Amino acid sequence: MAERALTVVGPLALLALWEALSRGGWLHPIFFPPPSAIVGTLVALVASGELLAHTVVSALRIVVGFVAAAVPAVALGMVMGLLRPVGLLLMPAAAALYPIPKIA
Questions:
Q1: For the whole model, what pTM was predicted?
Q2: CA-to-CA separations, 6 to 31, 65, 83, in angstroms, rounded
Q3: How far apart are CA 92 and CA 26, in angstroms?
Q4: Residue 99 phi, psi dihedral angles, 5° rounding
Q5: ∠ CA 40-43-45, rounded to 5°
Q6: CB within 8 A of 37, min separation 6: which ones?
């Protein structure tokens, strides 16, 4: 039970310290706004619908980007798998891309 309490108390103490340092002027509010201000801004953005609108736009951009990348990649992969000369020609370039992190 004490271990569970510590897992809750630790982050709460960190938030309280952050709030106190920010309100006391020890942390610059542009870089470290108090957590209460962050929560207030979140509530305001959700209530106004602005957060949802921006989230929908961002999600749409992600979907469009994924489709724009996946469709030609799948087509090229199928061509490489079906036509051996094309596969042999393009495999070195594809192999060079393996070490690059997928998120990039």
A1: 0.65
A2: 28, 43, 60
A3: 55
A4: -70, -15
A5: 110
A6: 29
